[in-house]
Amino acid sequence: MQKNILLIDDDIDELKIFTDAIKEVPGDFKCVFVTGTQEALDMLQSFVPHYIFVDFNIPKINGLDFLSSVKKSDRLKEVPVFLYSTSISNEMSKIAELLGAAGSIEKTFSIAMLASELKVLLTDGARPNYVMLNGK
Fold first, then answer.
1. Is pLDDT at 69 greater than 90 in this prediction?
2. DSSP character for 124?
3. pLDDT, average across residues 20-40
4. Tens digit of pLDDT for each residue in 91-113?
5. pLDDT grade, residue 43 (50/70/90)?
6. Could you tell me the domains of the chain?
7. Which one of 1, 29, 34, 80 is separated from 119 by 20 to 30 angstroms, measured CA to CA?
8. Is pLDDT at 72 greater than 50 in this prediction?
9. d(CA 56, CA 66)
10. What are the CA-CA distances from residue 66 to residues 20, 81, 103, 110, 135 (Å)?
11. Which H, E and C letters describe the chain, residue by residue?
């Protein structure tokens, strides 16, 4: 089953880096790209992606405000939203987590590094599975 990713970033070059990295992730992913958070909010009225990646430093409605809006929506609150930015401070990461972010990922020009991080975030097979026996 194809999984849709919404990437929100005001830098069109990020689309190329992100889509090249997604090609390295096992599975069938389609990336939809918009350059603004208002455009994304409008799109989300009729489209529910499987994952959302939003740049924190985006004009008008920043990534945290966008995240807050998405998590208030009954239709969208279960969609994992990841903050995607060039520099993510511990404080910003904690605020994003409190607002319901699934995580944060720093932008990189290394497709291999980004692909490695995306594999962990987007594929069940890359996550460790733990079995608890007798509560241990």
1. yes
2. G
3. 93
4. 888 888 889 999 888 888 889 99
5. very high
6. 3-126 (3.40.50.2300)
7. 34
8. yes
9. 9
10. 25, 10, 14, 26, 39
11. CCEEEEEECCCCHHHHHHHHHHCCCCCCEEEEEECCHHHHHHHCCCCCCCEEEEECCCCCCCHHHHHHHHHHCCCCCCCCEEEEECCCCHHHHHHHHHHCCCEEEECCCCHHHHHHHHHHHHCHHHCCCCCCCCCC
Instruction: Please determine, for residue 47, whether its predicted confidence score (pLDDT) is greater than 70.
Output: yes
How would residue 134 be classed by pLDDT, with cut points 50, 70 and 90? very low
Strands of 29-34's sheet, edge to edge?
29-34, 3-8, 51-55, 81-85, 103-106
Tokens 């990189």, located at residue:
108
Q: For residue 22, give both structure tokens.
A: 């997604």
In b/e form, how buried is each residue of 30-52, taking b as 16+ CB within 10 angstroms? ebebbbbbeebbeebeeeebebb
Q: How far apart are CA 106 and CA 24, in angstroms?
A: 18
Q: Is residue 76 pLDDT above 90, yes or no? A: yes
Query: Which residue shows structure tokens 């594999």?
Result: 119
Rounded to 10 degrees, the C-alpha dihedral 55/123/24/46 comes to -50
